[in-house]
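Quick sanity check, Small RNA 2'-O-methyltransferase:
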Amino acid sequence: MFSHKFICGSLTKMTETGITFDPPVYEQRYCATIQILEDARWKDQIKKVVEFGCAEMRFFQLMRRIETIEHIGLVDIDKSLLMRNLTSVNPLVSDYIRSRASPLKVQILQGNVADSSEELRDTDAVIAIELIEHVYDDVLAKIPVNIFGFMQPKLVVFSTPNSDFNVIFTRFNPLLPNGFRHEDHKFEWSRDEFKNWCLGIVEKYPNYMFSLTGVGNPPKEYESVGPVSQIAIFVRKDMLEMQLVNPLVSKPNIDKESIPYKLIHTVEYPFYVDTRTEKEKLWTEVQIELQRFKRQFESSEIEEGTYQDTCNMPIAFLLDRLEHVGATKERIEELLLENNLTVENECVLIVSSDQESEWSDPYKFSDRSSQDDALVDQEQEEERWDQGPES
C-alpha cells in the first residue's frame, strides 16, 4: 500500500435529533477526488479521465477546471438521465472569455461499467464515486476485469458507503427495508470487506497498489467505526517509480460479450495557446496598467475641474502591480524606453487621451471593463453547479 493524506477538513456534529456533516459528505467526496487527481506524483500524466456512474454530472463541473486534463468521458447506463443533463457539460460564456490553456474534449456515453468499449482505450484515470454498491454481483465481478484488465489506467478511485458507520445512523432512524441507506443499494461493505475486495484486485492485477481512506469522519466518541464513506485509491506502480510486475498490453481485446457504448453528446472547449515571448507578455501587462492609471487620473481631473496634458505614473507603483508576473524595475524601464515612453524622476509620462501616443491602442482595451463584468457574471453562474443538494 502507499499513503495519501487529504488536506480538506470537515466537521461532524451529532445531536439528539441526528447527525450532520459540514460540508455535506458528497462535497467532501468531490473535494477528496479532486485532490487525488491533482496529486503532484501523477497530475501531469493524467490527460484522459473516465467517470463511471456520472449521473447528473456534478463532479464534472469541478474536474473540468483541472487544466492538465484534456479528455473527459462521462459514462452512465441510464440514457434518460444523461439526456436530461447533457447540456450541463457545454462551455459557458466565461469559457470563451477566459479560454483554457489546453484543449478539453468531453464525451457523454451510455454504457455499462462492466463492458469494454473502444471509447475507454488510453484512459489515464477512472473515477467511480458511490457506484459499486448499486450493481449486482455479476456486474461487480466484471468491473475489475474491464478497468484493470482492459483499460489499464494509471489511477483508479472508488468510493462506497462504510457499513460500520451505520450503527450511528440507526441511533436516530432505522435503515431502509432492504437494510441499507439507499433503496437501490445491493450491498454496503464494512471496511474489512472493502479492503478484501481491493486485496483481491491487486492480487489478480499486481501492477497496482492501493491505499484506503475516507471522508465524513465520525464523532469523537465513535471513532472506531471509521468514516461514513470509504475510498480506495489504486495507482499503477510505474506512477510511483516502481517496476511493473507485468508488461502492459498494448491493445487489449474487447470482450466479445460487451455491449458497445453509445455516444450521446460531444463538446470541445475553447482553448488558447499563448505563443508570445515573456517579454511580449510583460509589455502587454505594462500597457494595461498604464491605461488603467490614465483612466483613473482623467476621472479625478473631471471631478476636480482641472486638466493637464500629461500625468506621471511612478515606476514603483507599476512594479508593485506587476511583481506577480516577474516584473523587475530594470525590465520595466527597458520596455518603456524601447517603446518610446519618457521616464523622468522615477515616473512614466503618460499623455492625455486627446494626444497621440505610439503605445496606445484604443481598440485593444476599450472592451476590457465590459469583459471583466461579463466574467464575474459567468463565474457566478458556474458556482451554482457546485452547490446542488445531494441526490
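Posting the structure with no commentary besides this: Residues 361-376, 378-391 have pLDDT under 50 and may be disordered.
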